Amino acid sequence: MRRITVLSVAGAVTVVVAVTSFMLSRTLAVREPIAIVTSAKVAEPPLITGTLSSRQVPTQVQVPSPSAPPVASLASAEVFPISSVASPRPVCGNPDALGVSRVVEIDTAGGPGFGFEQFKAYDFLRDREVVLTFDDGPWPGNTQAVLKALADQCTKALFFPIGKHAMWHPEIVKQVAAAGHAVGSHTWSHRDLSKLTVEQAKEEFEKGVSAVRAALGTSEASFFRFPGLRNPPEMLAYLGTRNVGIFSTDMDSFDFKIRKPEQVVASVMTKLKKHGKGIVLLHDFQHPTSLALPALLAQLKADGYKIVQVKSKDPVITLPEYDEAILKEFGSGTVSTRPTSSVVRTVSE
Predict the structure, then answer these.
(1) Residue 304 is inside which H or E element, if any?
(2) How far is the C-alpha of 173 from the C-alpha of 137, rounded, in Å?
(3) Angle at 92 between CA 90 and CA 94, to 5 degrees
(4) Which of 49, 130, 311, 321 registers the highest number of CB atoms within 10 A of its CB?
(5) pLDDT in tens, 255-269
(6) Contact (CB, 8 A) for 212 and 163
(7) In what order do the strands lie in the sheet with 223-224?
(8) If phi over 0 gives left and psi between -120 and 50 gives alpha, with beta otherwise, what is residue 270?
(9) What are φ and ψ of residue 291, in 5° steps?
(10) Would the CA dihedral through 184, 188, 192, 193 be positive or negative?
């Protein structure tokens, strides 16, 4: 009997241990999934330990802790540095626009020259590529018409305004820059620098650069074009020390001698057909050119030419003494502020 009793007790103990082990293992097996499901609920209060939780939080409400580095919310997401992400091109409303085929950046250190009429070192254009350039602006009516024609074709150009014109019409220079075009300079008063002393020529250049900067309210591109394309060697050397890129041309439209828009178109297209590509010199100061530009751009598109947009790597650095000089000449504080129409308005007549 005692043997049977001992065996019975031992068996009972074995059964209790087995049942307990089974229940414990079942509890442990269930707890972890329950914890994951519970933590996925958005209603659960956030952790305040200062560390990032491993919980899966919906991306629209996920905010990384200020004390920890940001973590991608999705395993498949790729994170790129801002500098490597290309800015999206603005949407063009014209499906058949000429557009811009390529954008180039120019390092102007040392004063490189461009345009085969005077400089042969740097040929950056491919076959049937064109850089459109406009001199002598800004001018009311004409420059705005040029800007509209360019905008209608979703394309870009390079402008070389005269310093005095920029001071007279700063709001138009701002419109040029706001439209995404590069803005260089074209001297203070369009004097032939080859007929001036070196100091006078330097002053013409520097005052022109300072005037465009004052009109824009910011530094312009480090590009310059000599009036009449006359570039004395002393000034070429000086611009090299100023790290300003010099633009000549591959073909001059001579639109300042033309009075009919269709003749402007013919002049440019005839020369482009001969050269195959090039930097084209036009004038937004000239009324016939402003009228001719829509037809010219359409013809460039029809004939398979492509527009290259030019930018400078660094802006030009103006000299303080010339910044002060042009402001004194025109009145301090009157150039880089708002246009007259936004300052003064008629409230009663």
Answers:
(1) none
(2) 8
(3) 175
(4) 130
(5) 999 999 999 999 999
(6) yes
(7) 113-114, 245-247, 223-224
(8) alpha
(9) -75, -30
(10) negative
The pTM (predicted TM-score) of the whole model is 0.72
Q: Outline where DSSP puts E strands in the chain.
A: 102-106, 113-114, 129-135, 158-160, 182-183, 223-224, 245-247, 251-252, 278-283, 306-312
Contacts of 20 (CB under 8 A, 6+ apart): none
In whole angstroms, what separates CA 185 from the centre of its chain?
A: 19
| For range 55-73, the mean pLDDT | 32
Buried b (16+ CB within 10 A) or exposed e, 49-64: eeeeeeeeeeeeeeee
Return the structure tokens found at 183: 């803005």
CA 139 to each of CA 162, 224, 247, 298: distance values in angstroms, whole numbers, following the listed order: 10, 19, 21, 24
User: Closest Cα to residue 171, out of 4, 349, 338?
Assistant: 338
DSSP string for 88-137: PPPPPS-TT----SEEEEE--TT--EE-TTT--S---PPTTEEEEEEES-
Q: Burial level of 275, CB count in 10 A (0-12/13-18/19+)?
A: middle
* pLDDT, tens only, 210-241: 999 999 999 999 999 999 999 999 999 999 99
Could you write out the DSSP letters of every residue in 148-183? HHHHHTT---EEE--HHHHHH-HHHHHHHHHTT-EE
The contacts of residue 308 (CB under 8 Å, 6+ apart) are: 100, 101, 102, 103, 104, 124, 125, 129, 130, 131
> Residue 310: helix, strand or coil by DSSP?
strand
Q: How far are the Cα atoms of 40, 244, 305, 339 from residue 150, in angstroms, in the given order?
A: 54, 26, 15, 23
